[in-house]
Amino acid sequence: MTAVLRVRECGLAVPAAGSGTRWLIRGLSIDLTPGARVAIIGPSGAGKTTLLRALAGLVPPGEGSITLDERPVIDWDPRARARRIGWLPQRAEPWADVTAAELVALGRTPHLGALARHDQTDHAATRAALAQVDAGGLAMRRWSTLSGGERQRVMLARMLASDARILLLDEPTNALDVGHAMRVMQCCDRLARSGNTVVFATHDIQLARRWSDRVICIGAGSGVGPTDEMIVPERMAELFDVQAHWGQAMVFDSTPEGD
User: Fold this and answer.
1) Fold of 1-84+164-248
2) How many CA atoms lie within 13 A of 2 on its CB side?
3) What's the predicted TM-score (pTM) here?
4) I need a surface site. Which of 25, 35, 127, 253 has the fewest CB within 10 A?
């Protein structure tokens, strides 16, 4: 099931001091189509999370439109929307100290009827999602015993278990070590290559540069465009109010098979 998010002249605002309004984003237009890998970058407080929440249909745009398959995304039935859009917030806490497998299985909820129970298809999807993020060994561990990085991987697996075709991730590598951060992004890359839409917010410019095809910059110097045109010293200097230039950086690659 393919799905397309279209953003047209979108504006997002938050209350300002007194009775005013502060616009975080204005005039944003982009098509989020199958196979897209889109990074959202900008300084803290610029509106990255707010934009992701709007794309997920959790908050309405202040102006313009965000549509899912030509219908306002916020008007979709939540269960139907959740079958198409997966959402990974920065921080999430379960209602109880459940196991990782039980938590990931909740990603299957949009596919269940009112009184339906998980069947073999749901169990298989849960196992596959945990394996995708290298967390199969965590299946029977309870939430309270997991480290911050392990929790992040489990929550990512919960999103993947939904089989949604549009994946919205807020700081997906937060709290992860270099190895697991790379595996998460490799997983996102595979999903995009198989036709999923992957949109992620990040503070890591190198990560955005490596794992995206298009970039949305939010803040001073905002704009949308191909990654190699957006992540350049001049724009990054304006966006983050720093001096910027090309230099050298350590590069990590995946471990060869068999090592």
Assistant:
1) Rossmann fold (3.40.50)
2) 10
3) 0.91
4) 253
